[in-house]
Amino acid sequence: MTTGHSKYRPEVDGLRALAVVPVVLFHAGLRGFSGGYVGVDIFFVISGYLITQIVIGELQSQNFSLARFYERRARRILPALFFVMLACVPFAWAWMAPAQLMGFAESMVAVSLFVSNVFFSRRNGYFDEGVDENPLLHTWSLGVEEQFYLFYPLFLLVFWRIGIKRLIWLILVIAVCSLGWAEWQSQNDSISNFYLAPSRAWELLLGALLTLLTVSTSLLQRVRKTLGNILAGVGLLMIICAIVIYDKATPFPSLYALVPTVGTVLVLAFAHGETIAAKVLSLKVISGIGLVSYSAYLWHQPLFAFARILTLGNVSQSLFLCLTAVNFGLAYVTWRFVETPFRGQARLSRASVFRLSVAGSLFFIAFGLWRYYVDKDNRLSYVNRANYGLSVKCDFVGAFRPRAECVTSKSPKVMVWGDSYAMHIVPGLMASDARMELVQATASVCGPLFGVAAITTRSRIITQQSAENCKKFNDSVLDYLTKQTSVELVVISSPFVQIVDGEDYDLLTGGGRIRASVRAGTALMQQTIGTLRQIRKKVVIVAPPPIGEFNLGNCTERLLLRKPIFGPARSCEIDRRTYLQKRGDVLEFLREVESEAHVSVIRFDDLLCNRDICTTSIHGIPVYRDQGHFSYSGVEYLGRQMSLATNVQRLGR
Question: Which of 26, 139, 234, 366 is 20 to 30 A from 306 in CA distance terms?
């Protein structure tokens, strides 16, 4: 997202348009743009290409200045960024719930310190539910670029003296290492891999290598004369294929990212002059969009995020398209009246640019810290905090080893086993019997099955590695239960969708991968229950609560705070018919297991639902904290009302 000072090439702006439009339409959920997120990777290659042109050109003419380089970056990036951030503040204040506003405040601090990619990597995955409600989520890519700009010119300044050919080899080695790291991380830590600079550096360095090859050899010029049309066309086709074919399940960045990035390199290298690709990309409409691409990128996420916040995620396709049009209108205004004036050196000196940059950053840091600490202690934020059961330390990673925080007795009689849906029932059990002798064995996104773990097929939430870790965790639970004779009853809970939904999940078993289904899930749960009974443990299952098509915790919080809600979520009630359709496979699975494994299933439906609706708050108490998990106060109320502790012990068999 940078501009160079070499001869203007309208086809480069056309390439920017080919980057920004798919990103915007991908986030709008438009069919045909499932891989639109690769637009960011196109931007990275262009940035590496143009920045290297600037620095190498000045190094060759011996007039390179770090101060001038950082001044240009500040003029290019900060005015529009600060303008959009400032515009977000009043809407965030008016429309966001306290927990959302706290996250927004934190992100403002992170953006101002150029580490928003690090900040978002420690929260949720880019494609996870609800993460796209932060208006500044997209600034992760600016964080990557800013970190690159901070170190890359220094790197060139130091290693320029070794000669351009050796420099090419050095950068090539670094790029290959970065790509290798990205490929490995895509299978082991997909969230960090997506956001952090070490996994993205190779994309910027691809552009850098193209510039260095252009400067050091005439080979590209000779190829351009004979094969330019074909290679530029192939590059465009590679980009388009990635945009259309890739989706959220594609490991990214990884070797798959070579398709759009190498495609971008081919277009930059060979789409010159009379080539068909250059003519298409140089069309005024396309290159015009490219001119405003930076501002268009900045505006689209706040517009979409606030729409999602106001509708609880139920944004219609027509509204998304209207907002897309508004986005490009705002982009033009910002480019014309904010970006362009600040780029010229006549109005502001270098010292003024640096002073304003520091002042702007300090303002947003101070404002962000103030809002964070104001909202941190908000009562509803506390009510809607993550429900880990006995302790956050009971969300185990790796093998299960009972911790003091996760047991209520040295000789527990009851184990609660499962994932986050097992965590959230523990406060209900303890509220209904404070003396319950219990041990909590829970791990996020790890369903309670022995020798089996789910793996996602349409997203990157559960990778092969995390599935293997889940199997190890459950094996260690079995080992503990075999040795811990005091445990008489195992309470199993989970959403169970991951073992019955064959569209989104496979099951990783000892014999390989099988498609998730009601039949497969029922058989595997029967085996697990049989194993528990063989070691003389009674079993009872607690069903997941009713869910809707929106974030139930956010909705009730907004209702209590009198924040605006638009669309079908206005009442915050769950349509029972929609719930039964949405969770039909899970409900069928529970009936089958109940019948075939002769196990009791405790359900919350009778207390929460009537014939038509299910409630999300009782006597002003928010029952849910998010899309489907109970809040602490909600499950404590339900636990007392249902005598949950007594019932699990009475129904265990």
Answer: 366
Q: How far apart are CA 192 and CA 73, in angstroms?
A: 26
Instruction: Yes or no: say if 46 and 324 are a contact pair by the CB < 8 Å rule.
Output: no
Residue 5 inside a domain? The answer is no
Look up the pTM and report it: 0.88
Best CA proximity match to 440, nearest among 417, 421, 424, 419: 417
- Claim to verify: residue 311 and residue 422 sit in the same structural domain: no
Residue 622 lies in a domain: no
Owner of token pair 């992100």: 107
Helix (H, G, I), strand (E, B) or coil at 379: helix
Cα distance between residue 644 and residue 441, in whole Å: 18
pLDDT (tens digit per residue) in 175-222: 999 999 999 998 888 889 999 999 999 999 999 999 999 988 887 888
- Under 8 Å between Cβ of 121 and 144: no
| 319 in any annotated domain | yes
The beta-carbon contacts of 163-171 under 8 Å, at least 24 apart in sequence, are 164/212, 164/215, 164/216, 165/216, 167/212, 168/209, 168/212, 168/213, 168/216, 171/205, 171/208, 171/209, 171/212
pLDDT for residue 327: 98
- Mean pLDDT along residues 156-183: 96
361 and 499 in a single domain? The answer is no
> How many whole angstroms separate alpha carbon 500 and alpha carbon 356?
56
